[in-house]
Amino acid sequence: MRRTLVSQMEELPLGSLSEPDPNIPDRPVILVADDDQGIRTLFRAGLEREGFSVLLASNGRRAMELIRSAQISVVLLDLNMPGVDGIATLRELRSDPGFRTLPVILVTGSTTEADRIVGLDRGADDVVVKPVSVPELVARVRAQIRGREALTREQEASREYRRRLAAFLPELPRDAPLLTLAGALTERLPATLGLDSVAILAFERGSARCVAAAGPIVNRYPPTKLVPHDPGSEIARHAKTGPWLDTPSGPPDASGETTELAFVPFSLGSKAQPIGCLVYGQRPDQASGPLSHRLADLIDATDFIVTALRPAIEHAETTNAAILGLRRIIARQRFMMVLQPIVRLDGGTLVAVEALTRFSDGVRPEVRFAEAARLGMGAALQRATVAAAIDAAATLPSDVALSVNISPDVLEHDTDLPEIIGRAGRPMIVELTEHERIDDYHAVLAAFGRLGANVQLAVDDAGSGYASLRHILSLQPAYVKLDMEWVHGIAGDPIRRSLVSGLAYFAAETGCELIAEGIETQDERDALIELNVHLGQGFLLGRPEPNPRA
Asked: Are residues 427 and 460 in the same domain?
């Protein structure tokens, strides 16, 4: 015959239960909520014998009061209490964010599976059916406490991750290029996260490239290199399904290759598809535990990292898009060259033509060339326009010089330029803009000398740019181009006349010639002739056009 619960309580000898679990902190508080006084007394006696503190409630309302006022470790909650029953209490408990993880063991006299399912669905962590032995009840309580403590440890570890990340993210170089910032991140992340290795992969054209890496993982993913096609494409495909683990079998190899990897994809903004992933690696013998237990923390860490990288990623994407755009412009020659005559002012004889670039999208040449220089494509664009200018001038007499604009930096460093200019088959004039700084005049002159004897040097925009007369004095060009700002209105402006007169005298004394730019009126032309300026260009003398007349 089944013994009553009260008889169990009366027959319970001291020391009959198992020894207290050493992992449970001193005096965890257990709340027993049951309308049956006998049950409350039985559970209280058994729990107190095992070192627990016990609070009692006879209904759901009183249970919630105690939960809110005391530090409860586990709740033993009767399903069928009068008034506010166990299900209603569970509903109220789980609606409060502060108690959503508080362990609740539902105690019920019902033996039906449906009632147990309802309790679990409403938020109970465990269900026991009366009558239950006190040893089993204590074991279930301890299991819940261990689970709660494990969760608390994981939450604290997550908070510690966040604290560490938050501490070092502000120390990263601000406004740094993506590779610099990613390198700084990967160098510090292993120690910060207690890992062996970290790599940042970016997806491109269905595969993956390692942006930066630190630790033994560099043996698998060398920084700045494309991942071999098969694993690279597999990573890019797998990333669409979310984070995953890779745990190859066998011990680490001689290079120290990590044997456990976690891949956490990331996207940016509203983009649905991942644009890359963080790869975290460690050896199985590391004390921090397997990566499978830390995946949630690594996902959080990835959010922190991507937030830090976001400005650099967006800048890199914008830069890459601009570079691709420039490559298309060059490859498809989405520009045309127009040639503006340079003539002798006293007779109109055509001496040379200046090649000017017009882009199909209407962007001003100075803006497009500055963009190309900023993106490291200045040389490529200038080579393309010089080659196109040579083709555009092919129908002109071979004694008409072709003047092209080349930056000092490209002249000094581009090794393909001499071969391109050598194909011209006519005299060439290389115009160096005065707006750009020249640090080493000897190097520029040496580079100019490599262009050949049929090439002359001109300094463009004299009087408007960075170095003023220094370019002219140091480079000793064959031509000095007088900026249009000094030409406009010169006929009636004594100050402009005095300046140009001085430059004309300087040119005569040093063996170079002035070329006046922007001549638009007959008065300007006459004034320049009077001041001994012999060459000029401007709308009065000929507009830029694709096929100027000789």
From this structure: yes
Alpha carbon dihedral 176, 181, 183, 185, in 10-degree steps, equals 150
Residue with tokens 């939450």: 155
Cα–Cα dist 371/525, whole Å: 35
For residue 262, the number of C-alpha atoms closer than 13 Å in the C-beta half-sphere is 25
Which contacts (CB < 8 Å, 24+ apart) does range 369-373 have? 369/407, 371/322, 371/326, 372/326, 373/407, 373/409
Contacts of 247 (CB under 8 A, 6+ apart): 259, 260, 261
pLDDT (tens digit per residue) in 266-297: 988 666 789 899 999 987 666 566 788 788 88
Burial (CB < 10 A; 0-12, 13-18, 19+), residue 23, is exposed
Pairing status of strand 244-246 against strand 350-359: unpaired
Confidence of residue 11 (pLDDT cuts 50, 70, 90): very low
Residues 382 and 444 in one domain: yes
pTM for the structure as a whole: 0.63
Q: Is 113 exposed, middle or buried (0-12, 13-18, 19+ CB in 10 A)?
A: exposed
Q: What is the mean pLDDT of residues 150-157?
A: 79
CATH of the domain at 450: 3.20.20.450
User: Residue 524 contacts by C-beta under 8 Å, 6 or more apart in sequence?
Assistant: 487, 488, 489, 490, 491, 516, 538, 540
Q: Higher pLDDT residue, 282 or 336? A: 336
**Once rounded to an integer, what is the mean pLDDT over residues 214-238?**
86
Record the tokens describing residue 249, joined without a space: 């079998």
Within this chain, do residues 291 and 370 fall inside the same structural domain, yes or no? no
- Decide the pairing of beta strands 479-482 and 513-516: parallel
